[in-house]
């Protein structure tokens, strides 16, 4: 997949106190030293399964139990986003869904948890 089409965030605060987002050492201060992350979410309220995991490249997997969904995504290396960032992500998604006139076409479920993992520079 074209790297420009992957959903990823670049954390731009090199002095961040949170270890999850600590920048890689880059003495030049260029953007190459910033860590790129991949986002995954766990939502609830679907007919196919009670819990839905959405991860990179648009992959969706349904589960009957939350523990199964969490174990599946944790096994892939995702960890929970810090509370502030998770709340900001959830607020953004709720605002986006609310902006659609007449409501979303498909059931979006209730977003429960946002997770992330660093993306390796060599991986595509």
Features:
alpha+beta, single chain, globular, 124 residues, disordered N terminus, 21% helix
Question: Overview of this structure, please?
Answer:
Residues 1-34 are annotated as: Disordered. The chain has 124 residues and is of the alpha+beta class. It has one domain (3-118). 21% of the residues lie in helices and 25% in strands. The protein contains two helices and six strands, in the order E-E-E-E-H-E-H-E. Strands 1, 2, 3, 4, 5 and 6 form a six-stranded antiparallel β-sheet that branches. The chain is globular, with a radius of gyration of 16 Å.
Principal-axis shape: globular
The average pLDDT score comes to 74
What gyration radius follows from the Cα positions, in whole Å?
16 Å
> How many domains comprise the coordinates?
1
Q: Helix count, per DSSP?
A: 2
Strand content: 25-35%
Number of strands: 6
Task: Summarize the amount of helix as a percent range.
Answer: 10-25%
Oligomeric state of this protein: single chain
Alpha carbon gap, first and last residue:
7 Å
Low-confidence stretches: 1-32
Region (Disordered): 1-34
């Amino acid at each position: 997949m074209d790297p420009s089409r992957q959903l990823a965030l670049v954390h731009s605060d090199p002095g961040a106190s949170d270890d999850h987002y600590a920048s890689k050492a880059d003495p030049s201060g260029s953007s190459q030293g910033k860590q790129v992350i991949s986002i995954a979410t766990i939502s609830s309220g679907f007919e196919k399964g009670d819990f839905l995991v959405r991860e990179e490249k648009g992959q969706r997997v349904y589960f009957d139990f939350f523990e199964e969904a969490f174990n599946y995504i944790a096994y892939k290396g995702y960890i929970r986003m810090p509370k502030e960032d998770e709340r900001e992500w959830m607020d953004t998604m709720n605002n986006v869904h609310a902006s659609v006139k007449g409501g979303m076409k498909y059931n979006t479920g209730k977003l429960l948890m946002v997770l992330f993992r660093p993306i390796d520079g060599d991986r595509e």
